[in-house]
Design goal:
Layout (H helix, E strand, L loop, with lengths): L1 E7 L3 H12 L3 E8 L6 H14 L7 E3 L13 H4 L23 H11 L4 E5 L4 H9 L3 H4 E7 L15 H5 L1 H10 L4 E4 L1 H6 L4 H8 L4 H19 L1 H7 L7 H10 L7 E8 L10 E4 L10 E4 L4 H11 L2
Helix pairs in contact: 1-13, 1-14, 4-5, 5-8
Bound molecules: beta-D-ribofuranose and calcium ion.
Family: Belongs to the IUNH family.
InterPro entries: Inosine/uridine_hydrolase_dom, IUN_hydrolase, Ribo_hydro-like
Organism: Pleurodeles waltl
């Protein structure tokens, strides 16, 4: 089985990505680590516990990581994901926060990478703060990973949080910079533009959330708020790729589960702008190899939507 470690800032699409991973028969999720991002850290922890409960997978251990970025001010995306990060839907049966493991997420990341050296796939769908800390704590951390899948950044300087910046990278630019510089394992990046171009039709979405299972209904409820925003953000979506449903984190997860969902990619050195007045947090593709860095990343540039849909559908069955 593939061994997964998932690092999330559990908003709605992180929830979807987790559900996809735990539904994949050839995947074993060893742990989920939490980072502040879409919502504050305590909410992230609670949200992951809720998602695992819906999936009957509460045995998967969940760890609390860092709640604030390395250097900048904390931002969130509550306008989109809701104040609690999962669409502000009341849940009387939500598991208590005492179910979070005592050990720190970053300690556990380093431990798991050491224990499963060469076998662990890390999927990061939030700001990269925990990953940046892990490489500081153990510089050999990246070399112990099998591979890394990131949702974040942008490939054509189109942003969703600032004019040029995607949320996860803008939320902690220093962390994103460190990870893209220091991670030597094969690294795959699902950018904002890649996500938008891999949108699914609203007709498909409506069928998907109305499948009638407990998981589909959970997804329908937590997505209700953000999809209202998405469906009305017509101009943005039309500019990028036409109207449709976009589940950013799910593209990174799908590629980790089945690499063939990624139909093409650009192999290049990537970095992050840290100082620009308008461009702080923007991902930069070094296509002319100016930086002369050995560790290239694969920037996803094509998704097999038929395969992707099957993974999405299986995740709510
Ligand atoms: C990313 O930011 C968050 O809103 C999503 O969960 C995703 O990880 C998209 O920019
Ligand atoms: Ca996320």
């Amino acid at each position: 089985k593939l061994k997964f470690l998932i690092d999330v800032d559990c908003g709605t699409d992180d929830a979807q990505a987790i559900m996809m991973a735990v539904a994949a028969p050839h995947v074993k999720v060893l742990a989920i680590t939490c980072v502040g991002g879409n919502t504050q850290l305590e909410n992230v922890c609670k949200n992951v516990l809720r998602v695992l409960k819906v999936c009957n997978r509460s045995e998967i251990p969940v760890y609390r990581g860092l709640g604030t970025p390395i250097l900048g001010e904390r931002i969130n995306a509550s306008y989109f994901h809701g104040k609690d990060g999962l669409g502000d839907v009341p849940d009387a049966d939500a598991p208590g926060i005492e179910n979070i493991q005592k050990e720190h997420a970053v300690d556990m990341m380093v431990k798991l990478a050491t224990k499963h050296a060469g076998q662990l796939t890390l999927i990061a769908t939030g700001p990269l703060t925990n990953l940046a800390m892990a490489v500081r704590m153990d510089p050999s951390f990246p070399s112990k990973l099998k591979d890394l899948y990131i949702m974040g950044g942008n490939m054509e300087s189109r942003g969703n949080t600032t004019a040029c910046g995607e949320f996860n990278f803008v939320a902690d630019p220093e962390a994103a910079y460190m990870v893209l510089r220091d991670f030597t394992c094969p690294t795959y990046i699902a950018t904002w533009e890649h996500s938008c171009r891999s949108k699914l039709s609203w007709e498909w979405y409506d069928k998907w959330v109305n499948m009638g299972t407990a998981k589909a209904t959970f997804i329908k409820n937590i997505y209700a708020l953000s999809m209202k925003t998405s469906r009305s953000e017509k101009e943005v979506k039309e500019m990028v790729a036409g109207a449709g449903f976009v589940s950013c984190d799910a593209y990174a997860m799908a590629a980790a589960i089945d690499k063939s969902t990624m139909t093409s990619s650009i192999e290049t050195v990537v970095t992050v702008e840290l100082n620009g007045k308008f461009t702080r947090g923007m991902m930069v593709l070094d296509l002319i190899d100016e930086l002369k860095r050995p560790n290239k990343a694969f920037v996803m540039n094509g998704c097999d939507l038929e395969k992707f849909k099957v993974l999405m559908e299986n995740s709510v069955k």
